Amino acid sequence: AITAEILSISAPNPAYVGGSKSTVTVQVKNTGDTRDLRVYFNTGWTCDERKADGVYIQRNLTSGQSSDFVFHVTPPDAGGQDNVKVDVSAAPYGIWDWVLDTENKNFNAAPKPKAAAADVTSVSDSKDPVEVGETFVVTVAVKNTGQQPGTFDIGLELDAISNLQILTANRENQSFTAGQTLRFDFNVKANGP
User: Fold this and answer.
1) How many other CB atoms are found less than 10 A from the CB of residue 90?
2) What is the Cα–Cα distance from 184 to 165, expressed in whole angstroms?
3) Alpha carbon of 24 to those of 18, 41, 44, 84: distances in Å?
4) 113: phi then psi, degrees, rounded to nearest 5
5) Residues 6 or more apart from 123 whose CB is under 8 A from it?
């Protein structure tokens, strides 16, 4: 007999995220005679097992044997839903058109998290006005507006005609969690003309 069945279609935990490679596992049991079987995986997502004649994995299964067919998929960066159709097929006459079992399953992917990005949210000084020769503090608030952690270099820049001197070195490799705001103080001296 030429029979087989799909036992399960499973997704990993946690769920899919746009732009990130993951897997879908299709467990198949050969309920008939020993033979080559193909599991076709019809998806709109990128799949590593894509060949010129379709997306599939072919394997020889003995009678009664179960096997996991693992497909490596990457949802689009925007995420979204994919309605996957899985077919188990045989080719008793040399053509892979003998469909033994079919299942449909929906998978959802969250959008790819926004990359870390620094945004200066405020700049303030400790003294106004400032006398020549005085030192004051400039406070800079920086927010990571991304959805992922990031590392940024934070510093002050002055134009070439400024009579100010930055006394505090740049703060390099400052780590931010997603959405975090940090404040940095810089000592600045007012020089004469």
Assistant:
1) 21
2) 17
3) 15, 10, 13, 10
4) -60, 140
5) 138, 139, 140, 141
Mode of pairing for the β-strands spanning 22-30 and 4-10: antiparallel
Tell me the per-residue pLDDT of 75-131, one tens digit each, with 9 for 90 and over: 999 999 999 999 999 998 889 989 999 999 999 999 999 999 999 999 999 988 888
Place of tokens 């069945």: 5
Q: How many helices (H) and strands (E) does the chain have?
A: 0, 16
Closest to 9 in 3D by CA, of 35, 36, 42: 42
- Residue 124 is encoded by which pair of tokens? 């303030």
Region of 173 (left: φ > 0; alpha: ψ -120 to 50; beta: rest) is: left
Report strand pairing: 50-51 vs 54-61. Answer: antiparallel
**98 vs 40: CA distance, rounded Å:** 12
pTM passes above 0.85 = no
Edge to edge, what strands does the sheet with 66-74 contain?
4-10, 22-30, 66-74, 46-47
- CB within 8 A of 158, min separation 6: which ones? 164, 166
User: For residue 36, which phi and psi values (nearest 5 degrees)?
Assistant: -75, 135
H or E element, residue 137 = strand 135-144
What is the C-alpha to C-alpha distance for residues 92 and 94, in angstroms, rounded to an integer? 6
